[in-house]
User: Fold ABC transporter ATP-binding protein from Chelatococcus reniformis.
Amino acid sequence: MSRPEPILAVDGLAVGYGVVPIVRDVALAVGRGEAVALLGANGAGKSTLLKAISGLLKPSAGRIRLAGKDIQGLAAETLVGRGLSHVAEGRRIFRKESVADNIQLGMYRLGLGRAEMARRRDEAFTLFPALREKAPAAAGTLSGGQQQMLAIAQALVRRPSVLMLDEPSLGLAPILVDEVFRVLGDIRAQGVSVLLVEQVVEQTLGFVDFAYVLANGRIAAAGTPAELGRTDVVRQAYLGRAPADLEGAA
Ligand SMILES: Nc1ncnc2c1ncn2[C@@H]1O[C@H](COP(=O)(O)OP(=O)(O)OP(=O)(O)O)[C@@H](O)[C@H]1O
Assistant:
């Protein structure tokens, strides 16, 4: 199957904490308009890899290109301006601030005028009607699912061309996981390219166009969901985990 031209391309990437590399020799690509998954067991290095791409960690080797331009080593803030948004694990919202202010903070330092910020906030509320209802409430009073939606909304108002999400379904009830995937479908339909780290494997493979499996910091397999489904490689990457985790919410 031919894939679209890459909007994000990673090559020979190594990154770690201090001297110990956690992720080694990783190559991956996200095509324009594609939804791509990064799967792998706990500790495989998925979050570390996303942080290196979004400029939160400095790679010790390798190349990262966004829309054809080298971005390795650039600061996270610079990359946001270039169209790369990262929804980190654990719903990093400002709990004491209102829902509306949280969305506003997502646009901080983008240099947008008031009218444009209001327009983008309204778009976010259209995608997440529950957030509109709770606009004046403190973000900390939202349910877990709503907090996750708020974290995604904060990233979306920056109008990213590539949206990276680290386990958006973490800790959510199955019905809310479905809601996360519905929203991701809407986001993809708007032409945003998506790189998704997830543990709900079945549902993720049902959503993405292409997937990479990370094991011990290296890419162990890559393919379309159909190609990966013909092998045992995904299951093997999760060996040692409870079968229930593999079944996800499907
Ligand atoms: N700040 C840190 N300092 C040192 N080691 C770290 C740090 N953060 C993560 N690690 C180590 O890096 C390895 C990869 O962690 P990472 O969080 O990238 O994995 P993951 O695949 O995202 O797993 P999970 O699904 O648990 O989030 C683990 O061995 C972890 O202990």
